[in-house]
Amino acid sequence: MLKSQNPQKQPLIVLVGPTGVGKTALSLGIGQQFSAEIISMDSMQIYKYMDIGTAKASAEERAIVPHHLVDFVDPRSDYNTNTFVIDTQRVAQDIADRGNIPMLVGGTGLYLQALLFGLIDIPEIPAAIRENIQHRIDVEGNAVLHEELAAIDPESALRVHINDTQRLIRGLEIHAATGITWSAFLQSQQPPDSAFNPILIGLRRERDELYERINRRVEQMLDEGLLGEVKGLLARGYGPELGSMQSIGYRHMVEFCLGHWSWDEAVRLLKRDTRRYAKRQMTWFRDKGITWFHPDDRSGVEGFVKAAIAHLK
């Protein structure tokens, strides 16, 4: 996980929660209060040219509190969990060396899992297995293979969207190559020795409140020009087959651009899939030792962080 040359444990603030819950606003306040710098823990905000659909912090917000691991990967590039952990190790140490506190903010559960419990020690997957699964997806479609994943690994199927081809292949190839499910590998991980002491904070709202915020957020993204952003990506040569372009929001606009869905259908499915994603995120965050707050309870969060930091001294 995160290593440090300082023998004394250093605080690492970790702020998680589902999409649309209100992490950005609260993280800026915490960052200012505790001289923290934000490390994005979002598997989509890493990509260049993908701003509206990923709800990146604005330039003005990034000027308030420094942000890292945002807007630095080409959408054609593969960026996996191992790379994220390595990058986070480096950035967190740089922040700590400057006398500031690193603060992870995001909702990508797989990244959190790797940071807290270490990387998964999975044997190398034979190319023939991966190519066979890719061929089956091309021929049979994602839905058939997602049902297959649900039969062998229900837990992984719950957190992998039917259109997330990259992770769908990952879940199936791990089982095909090892006979062990992806979720079993995750559960077998041992917490790594770390010089950073995580202060785990989660934000949550009542379901109806969260879902209403998600619906409004989708409308806001559309008003801000999500469709134009996707058309610009397609014009740059970033095709629908890319993993980055298959993510929530982008694939919905692509389907509209290709004439496969009407505008009303694309918007309806975008809202529905975003709500479902939020539900899967909360599943990821279970049993991680997280202390939960309502996003409006800034004083409660700050008091919790202050007490946790004092305990480390």
Please tell me how large the radius of gyration is: 20 Å
Shape: globular
The averaged pLDDT comes out at 91
Q: Enumerate how many helices there are, as a single number.
A: 14
Q: Report the CATH C-level class of the largest domain.
A: Alpha Beta
- Class derived from helix and strand content: alpha/beta
Series of H and E elements:
EHEHEHEHHHHHHEHHHHEH
How many beta strands in the DSSP annotation?
Answer: 6
The description of the largest β-sheet is: 6 strands, parallel
Alpha-carbon distance between the two ends: 22 Å
Report the sheet-strand fraction: 5-15%
Give a short summary of the structure.
It is built from 14 helices and six strands. It is α/β, with parallel strands linked by helices. Strand 2, helix 2 and strand 3 (67-68) form a beta-alpha-beta unit.
Explain this structure to me?
- The chain is α/β, with parallel strands linked by helices and 313 residues long.
- It folds into two domains: 10-119 and 197-312, Rossmann fold, CATH 3.40.50.300; 127-187, Orthogonal Bundle (Histone, subunit A).
- It is 54% helix and 10% strand.
- The protein contains 14 helices and six strands.
- It has helices at 23-34, 59-64, 81-97, 109-117, 127-140, 142-152, 154-159, 165-178, 182-187, 207-224, 226-235, 250-257, 263-284, 298-312, and strands spanning 10-16, 36-40, 67-68, 101-106, 196-203, 291-293.
- A six-stranded parallel sheet has the order 3-2-4-1-5-6, with helices on both faces.
- Helix 2 (59-64) links the parallel strand 2 and strand 3.
- Helix 3 crosses helix 4, helix 5 packs across helix 6 and helix 12 runs antiparallel to helix 13.
- The longest helix is centred in the last third of the chain and has 22 residues, at 263-284.
- The protein is globular and about 60 Å long.
- The chain starts with 9 loop residues before the first strand and ends with a helix.
